[in-house]
Amino acid sequence: MPENDGFWNFYWEVALQPMENLGKREAVLAGSQLIRRIAQQTGRPVRVLEPGCGEGQIVGTLVSRHSQICDSKVVAGIDCNPRALTRCRSDFPGLQWVEGDFTDPALLSRLGEYDLVLLVNALHEVYSAVYSPELGQVDVPAAKCAVEDVLVEIIKRLAPGGWLLLFDGLEPPGDPAEPVQIRFLHEQARAHFEVFAAQYRPFRISYRETGSPNVVELSRRDFTRYIDKSIFLGKALWQTERLESYQYFREDEFRAAFAHCGLEISELRTLTVNAEKWRRTVEIVAPGVEFPEEHILIVARREQAPAGRPPRVLR
To answer: Which of 310, 187, 175 is nearest to 256 (CA)?
Structure first.
């Protein structure tokens, strides 16, 4: 089977059409390129790990399509949901599926070394879990520290010179409290927003009426979470999605965390998903203000020789 980028780009364009989430397609495309690059560089089958694998959609798809250059005996997905792992074993037999909490250092320490670690929509769950009942929202400083601590432990599973692929939410730059005015383009959009504001848990969603029809003002932070999460309203996933903040780090915080872990970034892209859909639902009143790039994709490589970590950089 051809191994050139042109062939695989065409293949994935067709094969991934059923995936609704553009971000996951982007992660699969980047993962496919990495697997082929690693196999060419090392001359041996690639060892892959995905913490927080869910139903195996990412790691299972990649390894099954690149079975000739992946080591299925040293491919692992970790998840704490036994029902999801049952689906993994059914859809992708022959791979190693581990039930447990990928934030547990003891569990990670029992695993071997991997050439590629996939972190796709995983770390924002670590951040969201640090919820303070006293504050009534995520304890942001503690949550950021928890993310960095988990990232440090996961990187230990990377072989020297191994690669990490991260795809997750991105906190926009600037002041998260900066006000943004938006206009709902139809009544259903306004009704959905009010349900979102009432039921979203990680942060209190507050807004004020402006006096103009269907125009409200809210913070940049809350607006970003609204366009990310309210797509799940009315779906079964809403009961879990409403508990999670997809955003947790800004781009500069990602860069600092990766440097702290001894990772050298070779590619970093920010993107927005479904912007055209949102333009049919809501418009930003302020001229020149665009929908935020709320997703980030990072490809990074671990240093060949482990380096001493500098002090924690995230506060």
So the answer is: 310
